[in-house]
């Protein structure tokens, strides 16, 4: 059984070497590490370069929580310079749960400006896009529709089912995190989406709830997502693992 953790912020994990080793022992064959801003993009490139013994893949971008216009051009240049060895542009998007973007105004406008610039870049480079869409699911979908993007992933999807149906109708994908164990919204998405359009992720090192209390996630915890998804889909874990692994490789254009 092979698994792919499609979203990890490896530069934020304290014990990188230990986390990667534990992931490999747990059967996590591939890990995608995502950037958030200029500094984190540089950090994950360094981690990618120094951990060649693992199957790591890169996604570079500016997260809506850190929409620094002054670094946009530099990040875009960095992405262009790595175009041959990045798997996606991301993590990019909109987030209306942040205080500065709860209402229409400068906060949302800045998020939108950077999101659009990076969507255009992904179109230019013909790269998949990892979309952060918390509280802005409909607006994110409307924007990505404006560009010729072949592969779009709505990361950690917990939005309305009606928008999810539109996402799926476009041929786009969603990913599910360990919040699937308790989030009603994530569970509704898992039931609605076909397994071949679902990717598994941890968003490590996010802290999640469990019966034993909160825990700080790492890539091996993608097994939690697999277990819960197999229960919700009433499918064998090995079968779900195979389908989602293949879907992940297809999405990121990885020949395996």
Q: How would you summarize the topology of this molecule?
A:
Blueprint: E1 3-8, H1 16-25, E2 28-34, H2 38-50, E3 56-60, H3 72-81, E4 88-93, H4 106-125, E5 129-132, H5 137-144, E6 152-154, H6 161-169, E7 173-176, H7 184-192, E8 198-200, E9 207-208, E10 215-216, H8 222-233, H9 237-251
Parallel strand pairs: 1-2, 2-3, 3-4, 4-5, 5-6, 6-7, 7-8
Antiparallel strand pairs: 9-10
Structure summary, number of beta strands: 10
Overall geometry: globular
User: Which CATH architecture would you pick?
Assistant: Alpha-Beta Barrel
CATH H-level superfamily title: Metal-dependent hydrolases
Helix and strand composition category: alpha/beta
As a percent range, the share of strand residues is 15-25%
The pLDDT mean sits at 96
Largest sheet: 8 strands, parallel
CATH fold name: TIM Barrel
Question: Could you characterize what this model shows?
Answer:
The strands form two sheets. The chain has an eight-stranded parallel sheet. It has a two-stranded antiparallel ribbon with strand order 9-10. The mean pLDDT is 96. With 256 residues, the protein is of the alpha/beta class. It is globular, with a radius of gyration of 17 Å. The protein has one domain (3-251): TIM Barrel. It contains nine helices and ten strands.
